């Protein structure tokens, strides 16, 4: 429900559905028909309020995306396995078909890949490349940035376009 203003329009990762729906160029019907075919969705910072998180994930799953990219902070405290266990059922519609691609956030910290969600996704890497529909998505760990991550980035083939996703 947050509308853009001078204080928040430059913050990356914001989606302003109200602005689109209230625009004279777009009607709710036009938006709904455009959303009938959703190839991928990006969301993140879903670490608190499981009830709201569940509504968001259920809505995402209703679009039947082929991939969902999470920009980190899936839980409040990465070292608390009970939080990871609590988000498992919330994200099951993404975890079961393995369409969830998760990047590490600062709240997950060192437990970003050593948790039930990542194990269920069979992805225990802090950074990785996901080829999807001719696009090259790169999950980055922007909070630890180990030297090996930088070396790995340097070894990616030139001449390609990459779409990084990470926690700001």
Contiguous helical run count? 7
Spatially, the strands of the biggest sheet line up as: 1-2-3
Chain-averaged pLDDT: 81
Percent of sequence in beta strands: 5-15%
- Estimated radius of gyration: 17 Å
Work out the number of β strands: 6
The percentage helix is 25-40%
Q: Which segments are poorly predicted (pLDDT under 50) over 5 or more consecutive residues?
A: 1-28, 30-35
Shape: globular
The secondary structure category is alpha/beta
Following the backbone from N to C, one meets helices and strands in this order, namely HHEHEHHEHEEHE
* CA-CA gap between termini: 21 Å
Largest sheet: 3 strands, parallel
Give a quick set of tags describing it.
168 residues, 3-stranded parallel sheet, disordered N terminus, 7 helices, 3-stranded mixed sheet, alpha/beta, single chain, globular
What features would you describe in this structure?
By secondary structure, the protein is of the alpha/beta class. 32% of the residues lie in helices and 15% in strands. It is built from seven helices and six strands, in the order ααβαβααβαββαβ. A three-stranded parallel β-sheet has the order 1-2-3, with no helix packed on it. The longest helix is centred in the middle third of the chain and has 13 residues. The chain is globular and about 45 Å long.
């Amino acid at each position: 429900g947050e509308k853009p203003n001078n204080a928040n329009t430059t913050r990356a990762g914001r989606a302003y559905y109200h602005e689109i729906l209230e625009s004279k160029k777009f009607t709710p019907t036009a938006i709904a028909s455009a959303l009938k075919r959703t190839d991928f969705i990006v969301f993140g910072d879903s670490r608190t309020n499981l009830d709201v998180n569940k509504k968001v994930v259920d809505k995402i799953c209703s679009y039947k995306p082929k991939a969902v990219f999470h920009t980190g902070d899936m839980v409040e405290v990465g070292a608390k396995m009970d939080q990871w266990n609590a988000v498992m059922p919330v994200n099951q519609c993404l975890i079961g078909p393995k369409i969830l691609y998760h990047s590490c956030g600062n709240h997950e910290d060192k437990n970003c890949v050593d948790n039930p969600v990542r194990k269920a996704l069979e992805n225990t890497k802090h950074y990785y490349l996901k080829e999807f529909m001719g696009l090259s998505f790169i999950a980055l760990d922007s909070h630890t940035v180990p030297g090996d991550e930088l070396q790995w980035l340097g070894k990616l083939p030139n001449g390609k376009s990459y779409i990084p996703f990470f926690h700001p």
